[in-house]
Amino acid sequence: MSVRRDPKTGRWFFRARVTFADGKRDRISGTPGVPGPYHDLPNTQRGADAAEKRAITKAMTGQVVRPEARDVPTFTAYDKPFMELYAAAHKPSSRRDKRQRLDLDVLPVVGKLKLDGLRQSHIDEIVRRMLARDCGRKGINTTLAVLSAMVRYAVTNKLIADPELSFAIAAQPNPIAPVAPDDVAKLLEVCADARYRIAILLCADAGLRIGEVRALPWLEVNELGRELTIAWSYDRVNALSETKGWERRTVPISERLRAELKTIERRGNLVFSRLDGDPLGYDAVRDRLHEIYEAAGVKAPTMPWHSLRHTFGTELARRTSDIETVRELMGHKSIATTQRYFHTTRDRKRTAIDLLSLGSVRAVTPKPDLK
């Protein structure tokens, strides 16, 4: 067959021989949907068939079948449909993040380019500029992912062919930094405000994100069934949306969280709120938690609230090997995220080396002479 699909890449291509009137033969080949003479054709079996017919026509008659001229927009021009259509259903915080990354790092480099003019050198220039500003590699990859999404959206809409560029750099995942259980106890001990004790336990004993804590209504707290349901979250500007991953999850209530919930006066619909019942702002609860860490003599991690959620995940992983249950309780979309909590601890490493040493000693110890 002259038209086939590459088993490694999944791309359709053609490869054939043509025979001329004088008996001479020549090879022709090509791939539709990539930069070149067949870029306007889809990378499908039909696209490969059409590309082969073009190649045969050129080889036999010398006539080049020109692809249809297309008006390819620049990245700046495509920014509006990308944000208004592609990102329309995204959370407000996600749209704001995309807007900031496009304005700060992407469009200054590629804004004037047409979508089909993007090259690896342009992506590398974005990386160079961000590294020069000491941006973290994870943040750089998040920015490149926004650019990649814009390009993929253009490919999906058949404005351009897939440019097959790399939109990521090597980066290590951020280390998980849980708060030690003893330190969580210290935070609770110095915290006189029952609202903040409950918030700390919602993170450390139930694994809520701080946005989920701020949006948790009393209606989702089933004290009789001793469980709570997480379905909503406030972002940094108090915009309410569904939780990360768009999935509700139910988590059992620990005994000490249950005891604390009984002590608080209900001032409105929210469990964790201002004294007048309105939602607490992100900056206010972050600053207050820093004060609690300081009063407890505990060094505050970079992400003081989220590290309490890491405590929940780490303690779960330490006590069970059921990774699927941990994933459900943490509300992770991907099991790969949950696997980070099943890391090898320092104690486990020491135990492994001790066992290795013990085995070595046994191996070199001479057996007693039984004669």
Tell me about this structure.
- With 371 residues, this protein is mainly alpha-helical.
- It folds into three domains: 3-61, no CATH class; 75-156, DNA polymerase, domain 1 (Orthogonal Bundle), CATH 1.10.150; 181-339, Orthogonal Bundle (hpI Integrase, Chain A).
- Helices cover 48% and strands 9% of the residues.
- It has helices at 45-61, 75-86, 92-110, 120-132, 137-156, 181-190, 194-204, 210-215, 255-261, 282-296, 304-319, 323-330, 335-339, 346-364, and strands spanning 3-5, 12-19, 25-30, 221-222, 227-230, 232-234, 240-242, 249-252.
- The chain starts with a strand and ends in a 7-residue tail after the last helix.
Descriptive keywords:
hpI Integrase, Chain A; mainly alpha; 14 helices; 8 strands; 371 residues; three-stranded antiparallel beta sheet; elongated; DNA polymerase, domain 1
Number of helix segments?
14
Order of helices and strands: EEEHHHHHHHHEEEEEHHHHHH
Q: Note the overall shape.
A: elongated
CATH superfamily of the largest domain: Intergrase catalytic core
- Our measurement of the CA-to-CA distance between the termini, rounded to an integer number of angstroms, reads 78 Å
Please specify the SSE layout and strand pairing.
Blueprint: E1 3-5, E2 12-19, E3 25-30, H1 45-61, H2 75-86, H3 92-110, H4 120-132, H5 137-156, H6 181-190, H7 194-204, H8 210-215, E4 221-222, E5 227-230, E6 232-234, E7 240-242, E8 249-252, H9 255-261, H10 282-296, H11 304-319, H12 323-330, H13 335-339, H14 346-364
Antiparallel strand pairs: 1-2, 2-3, 4-5, 5-8, 6-7
Helix pairs in contact: 2-3, 3-4, 3-5, 6-10, 7-9, 7-11
